[in-house]
Amino acid sequence: MNRWPLHENPITQFAAWFEDAKACKAILQANAMCLSTIGLDGFPDGRMVLLKRFDAQGFVFYTNLNSVKGRSLAAIPRSALTFHWDPLKRQVRIQGTTEPVTPQEADAYWVTRPRLAQIGAWASLQSEPLDRNRTFIKRLAEYAAKFGIAPIPRPPCWTGLRVKPHKIEFWRQRRGRLHERILYLRGAKEWQVMRLYP
């Protein structure tokens, strides 16, 4: 069984796998990940979101804080991320606590978004019931007219959330379901690394 070069730090390990995923032409969005939260009803809740950046501090995505996930994470700031890169037969699972990014970080990313996405962030009452699509289109038009050609400011309810990991597991598919699993656990000073049975 071939074993990959293991890095002592899981962020470095993730960066190597992420580069492989971005280079794989069969993977359309390497940064797509399932974000799992604990709902206000106590049930787990998962949805696909996009990773926008990562570093030693954690993994960042952006959302409307009034959305279901935003409200869930405000009440219970614990979450899990799952990356599944099927063409590479690899998976990464991350657990951690969640916190907002700084306003400066959110502003810096906001200005890189397409203008229509910026207008949509203002117009969408994310996760709220919508009587008909025409209502949303009308709201889009209203905000487009409001901002005209001027720069669009970031909505107060829209920002980034950072998942600060305490556990990261790397999984690689093997024949006969003899999969390879490497688990990193954050210690007081450094990460602990262990292999797991398939």
Descriptive notes:
With 198 residues, the protein is of the alpha+beta class. The chain has two domains: 10-105 and 158-196, Roll (Pnp Oxidase, Chain A), CATH 2.30.110.10; 112-150, no CATH class. Helices cover 27% and strands 36% of the residues. Strands 1, 2, 3, 4, 5, 6, 7, 8 and 9 form a nine-stranded antiparallel β-sheet that branches. A hairpin with a 7-residue loop joins strand 7 (158-172) and strand 8. The longest helix has 15 residues, at 133-147. The two termini are 13 Å apart. The model has no long low-confidence stretch (mean pLDDT 95).
- Using DSSP, what is the number of strands? 9
| Average of the residue pLDDT scores | 95
Top-tier CATH class of the largest domain? Mainly Beta
Provide the CATH superfamily of the largest domain: Electron Transport, Fmn-binding Protein, Chain A
Uncertain residue ranges:
none
Helix count from the secondary structure assignment? 5
Written as H for each helix and E for each strand, in order along the chain, the element string is HEEEEHEEHHHEEE
Return the structural class: alpha+beta
Helix content: 25-40%
Main β-sheet description: 9 strands, antiparallel
Secondary-structure topology with pairs:
Elements: H1 10-23, E1 32-38, E2 44-50, E3 53-55, E4 58-64, H2 68-75, E5 78-85, E6 90-100, H3 103-110, H4 115-123, H5 133-147, E7 158-172, E8 180-186, E9 191-196
Antiparallel strand pairs: 1-2, 1-5, 3-4, 4-7, 5-6, 6-7, 7-8, 8-9
Helix pairs in contact: 4-5
